[in-house]
Structure formats: structure tokens, C-alpha cells
Amino acid sequence: TTNLQRDNKMAWLEKPIKGLLLDISGVLKNGDLAIEGSVEAFRRLKASKIPFRLCTNETQEPREALRAKLSRLQFDVDLDKIFAPAPAMAARLRQEKRIPHLLIHPKINCEFDQPPNGVEPDCVVIGDACEAFTYEAMNTAFNILLKLKQKGEPKFYTLGRGKYYMEPNGLMLDLGPFTAALEYASGLTAELIGKPSPRFFKSALDSLELPPDQVVMIGDDIVGDVGGAQGVGLRGVLVRTGKFQPSDENHEKVKPDAIVDNFSQAIDQILQKCCYSCKSQRFDDRVPKK
Amino acid sequence: TTNLQRDNKMAWLEKPIKGLLLDISGVLKNGDLAIEGSVEAFRRLKASKIPFRLCTNETQEPREALRAKLSRLQFDVDLDKIFAPAPAMAARLRQEKRIPHLLIHPKINCEFDQPPNGVEPDCVVIGDACEAFTYEAMNTAFNILLKLKQKGEPKFYTLGRGKYYMEPNGLMLDLGPFTAALEYASGLTAELIGKPSPRFFKSALDSLELPPDQVVMIGDDIVGDVGGAQGVGLRGVLVRTGKFQPSDENHEKVKPDAIVDNFSQAIDQILQKCCYSCKSQRFDDRVPKK
Q1: What residues have CB less than 8 Å from B136, skipping those under 6 apart?
Q2: A-contacting residues in B 92-151 (Cβ below 8 Å)
Q3: C-beta of residue A93 within 8 angstroms of C-beta of residue A118
Q4: Closest by CA position to B55, among listed B28, B18, B35
Q5: Measured between beta carbons, which residues in chain A are less than 8 angstroms from residue B181?
Q6: Element of type H or E holding A46
Q7: Share of chain B above pLDDT 70, in %
Q8: pLDDT tens, B184-229?
Q9: pLDDT band, residue A241 (cuts 50/70/90)
Q10: CB pairs under 8 A between A and B
């Protein structure tokens, strides 16, 4: 059965892999440190020409700051390859011509269009505002939500539902608890913009111009990354780095298509198989289409 | 059927009423104004010698400040007649010899014993902290909760679950949303200390030294006052003042024993019947017990 187990473990590589979605925190880096082997693996991935997008729930920093931080860690990536909730939200607001009230981190303001002066907001957007989560700011957002509810068209968006994250001086509350607070007070349910919202994964897929069954997501969050990606038809690979917990290997709801030690191992397995599957795919391409 | 309806409406007066629990906000007063007729009704109640307790979820002010405010509005009441979540919590902490971390309004600190210096808290208490609900204060409370959870004995108390209240400059978030935020982040459920917790009603009953079926609660909150009181065997009377909404008259879960226009009407009906029931009760008392 050892062979069988090994075969099953590799089953996720049978279908072609033509693109990748990569989480950043916990996959490429932890805080300000690159995860061992991931810089080299990232270079191998780029050399392979397999297209990829970085898919992050980072909402404290604008993409440019994230790109610069990744560059300092030797991950060189173009800005348009980074998919994050704030620019996704800004694009949606632009598309739906909405004027948001923003309860977000001041640093990320630059991702949003400046609303015209004197125009009342018609939706509320909550991000990881940190110190900007004051009682006054929470009250302001709440009063706007209740006014929109009374008008009958309440739109309430959250850039994430994370509970907390680790900082050098302890655990810090993420935006999930503050979203929960405003939901409790207003009786409204916020629409999630980041992972694991299907719309967010689909926007990254659209950018790759690939169908979901040809793309693999690699992440350290069993629910947000792996479960979310599987929910829209991607394969989901869990790494044993970042926020990974041993109990994730027997998660009651989400079964990853593969569990690997780290990003480097995932890339090795993909590149090894991909040569085969790319070739067979090229062969298929030569078959005349009906 | 008019007679029958009238009779049914008066059914709550058939059993003896030997004590009362009264909500303050929305029953005796709205904000800084006495509700019409309530000062006189309160005097009639005191003259009747029917014992009563004030049962409030006020957690922003200490009882002494509340007593002084009531006194300015011509409601003269002794401090030991006021039951509020903070002193109930303080009594419980004293009884269980616990050291709390307090996330409460600075004004209400005086209700709690000062914890000894350098001793780690073994529970977290959240009140209506208002401006003191900073990101830093929320983080501190959260980190203590998680530490207690890891130790295996997490105790988390909330002085209320109110969503919001009205102030002259708009709606203000109550402590419920911030309780919800810490519950979401920690995965813990806070124990409610104020209304409608059965323990809170029972402490007021204990003070009256009366069984629940001889006591009536009068309040403006269909769930917190009326439903809560009924849950421990009291009769619950709803007033059409304060936060009362017409839809409360057909509430899907809570059926008040009576709905009256205001506190004054409730007291009139009780005093009118009480003379009868007190007499009949006195008569019953003369029947030799087996």
C-alpha cells in the first residue's frame, strides 16, 4: 500500500497545471523573513514560464509597499501580479459607481479613488484599520450602516474575516472581530471581498485567462486558501509552513489535494510533472479541433 | 367579549403581588427627563409599602451617580435598592475570589475592588467602555482571554449585550458589539451578568426575600425585561414608553403578562388590586398551615 499511497499523493499532478495562485504570508515569507528555500523556488517558477498570481488577504499595506517588501526579500514580482482585497474592492466600487465610507488603515487609502466632496456614502468598507479602530470611528461607520439600512439598500463590505495575527509584541486583532461587532450592532451581514470569496479567486483566474481546473492554489490557510480555491474548482495545496497546524491534516471539512512541507517542495513536484503534462498538452493541441 | 377581554387583561393581577422590580431607563425616565406621571406614581408606590428594587442594565455610571441623577428627577431611592450589572459583577468576583482584567468605563471603576498589584488577572470583564474601547485596549483584553483559554480556565464576563443606544448627537454603540468582537476573535462565549440573565433577576429577588411568583417586573424592553423576568417565574409587564415599539405587542417569542401605557398606569392597577389581594393574602395567612 506504500506505492498506492504514494500514487494517491501524486494524483493532483495528473491533470495539467497551466497556472498558479500563491499566498504570500506563510508561503513565501513569515513576517519580514523569507521562508527557507522559497526564494530559490520562486526563481525556478519564474524560469519555468508557468504564469502565476500572488493572492493575498493583506489589507494593511498597499500593493506597492508589499511589492517593495517582497523585492527586499528577493522575490521580484510585478505589481499587476498581486491580487489583494483593497484593489479588488476599489475596482468593484469603480465598476458599480459607489461612494464608500472607508474604515481602513490610513496607509491603504491610496488604493481607493478619492470620493468627491460633500457626496454621502452609499456603502461601508471595513479593512484592517488597527489603531484607527477607535470608538468614534466604529460609531461613525455604524451610524452610516443604519442610515443605509433605513433607506433599504445597505451595502457593507469587509476586506477579510481574519481573527488575529502574530506581531513581534503579541497577538493583534485582525479585522474579523470588528466586522463582527458592526454586524452584531446593525443586524447586517458584510460581504467578504478577500479570500475565500469565490469572486476574489475568479478575478485572479480571469487575469490568468485560465479555467479553474488548470490552476493550483498554494497556501498555508486550510480554509481561506485551500477550501476557498477548491470551492471554485481549483486544486488546493496546503504547505506545512506559516499558520499551518498539524490538526489541519485531518480537517473536518477541507481535504487538500496535496499537503507539502513547503513552497519549495510544491514547486519541485509541479515542475517535475509539468514538463510531462505541458508536453502532452502540446501534443493535444496538435489534434485538429472539430 | 369586551368584558372577557377586560378580564383577561387583568388576569395578571389575580395572584398576589408582594414586590416589584422596576427598570429605570424608559420606565421612570428617558435620558435626563422623568416620564410623565412616573414621579407621582413612584411616590404612590413608596407610600403603599410594597417593596421594590430598581433593576437596570446601566453600566456607564456607578450606582451613586445613578441615585443622585434619580434624586434630581424627584425619584428618591436608597442605594441598596438599585441592582446594576457592575455591583453584581463585583459581588460575584469577591465571592469567587477572582482578579479581573476590567475593560470598562473609567467612571465605573469605583464599583470594583482594586486588584492587588502584580497579580495576573484570572478573568476578563467587559462593560460599556465607550471611548476606552481603543484598539490597544481590545488587544490587551483579547491577549488575556487567549492566555486564559490556553490555561484551560477562560472566564469572560460581559455586563450586557445591548447593541446601541440613543444620545443627543446620534446612536452610540453599546457594549454588545465589542463583546461580540472579542467572542469572535477568542472563540469564547462571554457570560452575561445583567438582564436578562436569570442570576441577575434572582439576586434582586433574594434581596426582596420573595418567591418569583409574588413579584412583577415592569420594563420597556420586551426581551431583556419582560422575557427575562418571565424566564425565572416573575410576571412581566411591558410599558409603552422608552424603547417600546408597537411591534412588541405581537412579539414572536415574548408575551407580556400585561401591556400598559406607562409606569403610572401599571402602579394604579397594581395598587387597586393589591389592596384586595393583600387582604385576601392576609386572610389566607390566618388559615392554619398543615
Answers
A1: A131
A2: 129-136, 138-139, 142-143, 146
A3: no
A4: B28
A5: 173, 177-178, 180-181
A6: helix A38-48
A7: 92
A8: 999 999 999 999 999 999 999 999 999 999 999 999 999 999 999 9
A9: very high
A10: 85
* Confidence class for position B165, pLDDT limits 50, 70, 90: confident
d(CA A249, CA B92): 43
Q: Which residue of chain A comes nearest to B147, CA vs CA?
A: A171
Mean pLDDT of B161-170: 83
Q: Which secondary-structure segment (H or E) carries A45?
A: helix A38-48
pLDDT for residue B3 is more than 80: no
Chain B contacts of A136, Cβ < 8 Å?
A: 131
pLDDT tens per residue across span A91-140: 999 999 999 999 999 999 999 998 888 899 999 999 999 999 999 999 99
Residue in the block written with cell 452609499? A122
DSSP β-bridge partners for residue A215: A19
Residues 6+ apart with CB under 8 A from A215: A17, A18, A19, A20, A21, A205, A208, A234, A235
Report the amino acid identity of residue B170. Answer: G
Which residue do the cell numbers 451617580 mark? Answer: B65
The label of the residue with cell 509539468 reads: A274
Closest-CA residue to A57 (of A25, A19, A104): A25
Whether B39 has its CB under 8 Å from any CB of chain A: the answer is no
Task: Give the Cβ contact number of residue B43 at 10 Å.
Answer: 14
Q: Which residue of B has its CA nearest to A165?
A: B185
- Residues A175-218: tens digit of each pLDDT: 999 999 999 999 999 999 999 999 999 999 999 999 999 999 99
Residue A165, helix vs strand vs coil: strand
Q: What ipTM did this prediction achieve?
A: 0.82
pTM value is 0.83
All residues of chain A having their beta carbon less than 8 Å from the beta carbon of residue B182 are 177
List pLDDT tens digits, range B9-50. 788 999 999 999 999 999 999 988 999 999 999 999 999 999
